[in-house]
Amino acid sequence: MKYCNSCNVQVSGNRKNCPLCQGILSPGEYQDEAFPKIPFVYRENSILIKIMILISVIIACVSVAVNIMLPKGGAWSMFVLGGLVSLWISIITAINKRNNILKNILYQVVVISVIVIIWDFFTGWKGWSITYVIPFVCFFSMIAMAVISRFYEFYAEDCILYIIIGGMFGLVQIVFVFTGKLTVLYPSLICIVASIVSLSKMLIFNKKIFLEEIKRRLHM
Amino acid sequence: MKSKKVLEWHSLDNAAKIFPPNSKKRDTKVFRFACELYELVDKNVLQNALDMTMEEFPLYRSVIKKGLFWYYLEQSHYRPEVEEESLPPCSALYDKNKKSLLFRVMYYKKRISFEVYHALSDGTGALQFFRKLVFNYVVMKHKNKFIKAKTLLDVEASRIQKMDDSFQKYYSGKKNTFKKKKVNAFRIKGMKIPEYRISVIEGIVPVDRMLAKSKEYKVSLTIFLAAVLMCAINDEIPVRMKNRPVILSIPVNLRSYYSSKTERNFFGVIYVDYDFSAGSSDLNEVTAHLKKSFKDNLMPEQMEKRINMLSSLEHNYLIKPVPLVIKDIALKVANNVEDRGYTSSLSNIGVINMPDELKPFISSFDIFVSTNKLQACVCSFENKLRISFTSAFVSTEIQRRFFKTITDMGIPVTIESNMVNEE
């Protein structure tokens, strides 16, 4: 064991300096350290993300600059900026939720739905977001979740909530159908039918775990 | 879909509720128990011992999930795996984006380490698991020595007793007027260690010498250590902040106040303060002041008021239906306010007992906890008292002065620490 003459303490391990005063230790017999030495890792974004960020910055400032030089076509660069922001929100969500694929799908449904509604609104509300995009996104998310949860053999407790919420999202379309906001009905109807089938399948075959999950998630 | 059985689940106990929204890299709310043996640890035996221990402690199979109103613990199918230590001490265990078990078991040379997320259990609760794990390990490793003597570890608590939410059980619902004085504590400032790491500096001292010394000051060991720590912090306070009191937060095991054997959280926190601008920095005077302060704070009625105040929030009908997202924000604010209210923390786990037959195999036990400031944890095994400081700061001046005070009293100290500076 080594000894620090200024702190008057024995120091175990095989280091040179005193952990208390950082002074030089007097030599002693070799001993194992109590903790492994764990080197610092300087974490950085991956090169792909770095390149994507740089490209986004270039596109954004070049398009604004060009737009200022050629102002005749209106403020089209705002669309470019909006597109980039939308893309990055989606990418960041995907990265944050990368450990849970079903949760990731649900978050993408929400992010995409909100983004398309905002786009639709700012481009003079033509209703394409709630007529086409949202129903199809919901529909495909349900299909994807059903396939993935079968394919990966998820445990019930890991997938049931996401399938339920996915089904609920689809049912929101009923509101749009009955308030007469839609001119074209078939995408919404497909989506609603899929939701009802998905939720009923869950209720019929997995009634007990379905109700238990609801009870857990909603306990007060 | 696999496994359609109905899962066991529990809502988080009262003390645990604060942890999930406030766990971050800077303060992971993870604590570690470690046990040093006299021989190198065998990974396979440790894995078997762990599997066996898991059978008895179903709580440790839990993961944390988010409900609409509260977090809850849900039984999972994950199997814990023993690994060689390769992570910095008290690395995060709870990640809201990734489900995982709320504890880990690691080994390094002669040490078995067991890290637990605080929402699952407190020190005393987790110690039940860890003692059983060490017990199983030693007995399995040395089967031939334990053939006849079927040594048993203490009287065990029943499964129901272990899973008990004691905060719920002892909440009387009495309205009370418990008010905490709001004082701004002196807070340690300084450069922090990069990558959110913490430094661990442990001092090993003989129990008998320490007890004798604290008897000289006519106080208990905890009070004595608290006083030495306060004096060590005092020298750190810049003159312009001298008017701020040093406040220590001291977790108190409530199982000794109520008859509870739960392995979940059941602790309260008391705050003791000392104003160095008003009083002298003489150790005698500080211990005398702390003695009174501890006595006032630890009165059973006072403890009951504390439990009731915290539990009443959880039982409030206006708070219950607030969505978790909003509760999270409120709990973050509450935690920040709490954090500002104390300088440092001292936690004494007390004596760790093992059956006599196992003692020849075990060198010592220690415990320490993640922190964003400076915290001390103390526990003893046989005649070895381990005082473990964890700190987020680069400077080790407080720890140095603390151990200097002890060595100046003629008590020998052995230091063990992790390396945070790159040598």
What is the average of the pLDDT values of chain A? 89
User: Hey, which two chains have the biggest interface?
Assistant: A-B, 51 and 59 residues
Number of helices of chain B: 11
Q: Poorly predicted ranges of chain B (pLDDT <50, ≥5 residues)?
A: none
Structural class of chain A: mainly alpha
Domain module tally of chain A: 3
Question: Order of strands across the widest beta sheet of chain A?
Answer: 1-2
Radius of gyration of chain A, Cα only, in angstroms? 28 Å
Describe what this molecule looks like in 3D.
The complex is a heterodimer of chains A (220) and B (423). With 220 residues, chain A is an all-alpha fold. Chain A folds into 3 domains: 43 residues, no CATH class; 53 residues; 121 residues, no CATH class. Chain A has a two-stranded antiparallel sheet. Chain A is flat and about 85 Å long. In chain B, 31% of the residues lie in helices and 23% in strands. In chain B, strand 6 and strand 7 form a beta hairpin. The mean pLDDT of chain B is 89. In chain B, the strands form 3 sheets. Chain B has a 7-stranded mixed β-sheet. A 5-stranded mixed β-sheet of chain B has the order 5-6-7-2-12, with helices on one face. Chain B is α+β, with helices and mostly antiparallel strands and 423 residues long. Chain B has 2 domains: 161 residues, Chloramphenicol Acetyltransferase (2-Layer Sandwich), CATH 3.30.559; 224 residues, Nonribosomal peptide synthetase, condensation domain (Chloramphenicol Acetyltransferase, 2-Layer Sandwich). In chain B, helix 2 packs across helix 3 and helix 6 packs across helix 7. At the A-B interface, strand 2, helix 5 and helix 8 of A face strand 8, helix 11 and strand 15 of B.
Set down the secondary structure blueprint.
The complex is a heterodimer of chains A (220) and B (423).
Chain A: E1 2-4, E2 9-11, H1 47-69, H2 77-96, H3 101-122, H4 128-151, H5 156-171, H6 173-178, H7 186-205, H8 207-217
Antiparallel strand pairs in A: 1-2
Chain B: E1 9-11, H1 19-22, E2 30-37, H2 43-56, E3 62-66, E4 71-75, E5 83-84, E6 103-108, E7 111-117, H3 123-141, H4 159-163, H5 166-169, E8 199-206, H6 207-216, H7 221-234, E9 246-253, E10 267-274, H8 283-297, H9 300-315, H10 324-340, E11 344-351, E12 362-369, E13 374-381, E14 384-391, H11 397-408, E15 414-417
Helix pairs in contact in B: 2-3, 6-7, 7-8, 7-11
